[in-house]
Amino acid sequence: MGYPNPIGGISRKLSNDVFIHSCRFTRVNFLQFGARMSVIKLPDDSYVVYSAIPYNKEMINSFNELVGDKDWLLKVRYLVIPDVAHTMAITSYKDKMSENVKIIGMEGCNNIVDSMINIKLNEKFAYNVIEDDEQFQKLGLDKKNDAAFTENFKMLYMPKHPNKELILYHGNSKTLFEADLMMNLRNKKSIPDDNNQFNEQFGGKNVHTGISYLTGYMNPTSKIGIAAMTKLIPVSDESKLFFKNLNGLDIEKIVMSHGDVIEHGGSKVIKDLFAKFIN
Question: Which CATH number fits domain 10-278: 3.60.15.10, 3.20.20.140, 3.40.190.10, 3.30.710.10?
Answer without folding.
Answer: 3.60.15.10
